[in-house]
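Suppose a colleague, Dr. K., hands you the sequence of a protein chain of 379 amino acids and asks what its three-dimensional shape might be. Before reaching for any lab equipment, you can write down a predicted structure in token form. Begin with the sequence itself:
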Amino acid sequence: MRNFLLTLLILAGTVFAGGDAGSPVAPLEPLSGTPSRLKDLTTIEGARENQLIGYGLVSGLAGTGDGKVTQTIQSIANALQRFGINVPAEAIKSGNIAAVMVTTDIGPSMRSGNRIDVTISSMGDAKSLQGGILLQTPLLGADEVVYAVAQGAIAVGGFIGGTGGPGGATVQKNHPTVGVISNGAIVEREIPAQIIKDNSLNLVLRNPDFTSAARLAEAVNQAFPKSALAKDAATVNVIIPKEYADYTVNFIATLGGIEVQPDTPARVVINERTGTIIATANVRISTVAVSHGSLTISIASNLTVSQPNALANGATVVTPSTTTDVNEQHGGFKIVQEAPSIEKVSAALNALGLSTRDMMAIFQAMKKAGALQAELVLN
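The predicted structure, expressed as tokens, is then:
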């Protein structure tokens, strides 16, 4: 009988301990909403991009290139010397040529012979790069080693037309002095990337958060038990299982397909330049009374001409006159009750009949009053 009771206690302890008896914490409850793939939320430590930059020349411009720019003329002379042509700098005309900077990012998976896109930007006083051809340009990394070579026809998403100058008109669309070359650079040297250390890899969250890191580790442990551990708000260490020791690519691909519901902090982002307000779903507002009115002052200056009669022997006088108009809208004192969702927050503010700029001012005032339970970011 005693052995039977002891067996029941052991079984009961196993049931109440949960599926993972070795876990030191209780499982986290998933958040409501649509989950995202792990590959969209994280990057792998060590698998990073590197920036490349180079200086080159663009030829074939229809008179829209650099003027008498010293570095452009010197660069043309140096380029011609490579082909055995010696031309005095004072004899070079650079109207059809522009000095440019070439920039791009090279990924960790790029191999020798792969092609990458490059961005071209003018350095001198060229008016447009439209129709230009980038001459062969080496692209260097921060260690001053050549990793790619760029060349090709430039695609410019804008144009400029007209004569300009006194009495002329100019029409411009977008930025004609910046262009791109799709697949315009060939990778010449690979950049080694080490992503696996001590039979494990680190997943780095794009938006660091302790709750998101814990949920991510829990989701990985459900697929591969006791393999993931959240080290901090940005890093989750994952041990590669023995069955995937020789198939790390397959393991990483499987990890990328795991779905996780990240936690979103309560945040309100305001961009005063564009009049944009973005608020996350966790924004809360405590009970607060809001009164908002607007004051508009218009001042107009006019010139009045006083013309005397023909026989008055007077002079014509121009007298300035100023008209001032003040318009003040009276605002009501309205109580905004505690709002449990962003839908009710926006509905309460819209009920006040406010413009976007008025809402910006109210959000800032709410934050100062302590009624906005969210981070306020001003851009």
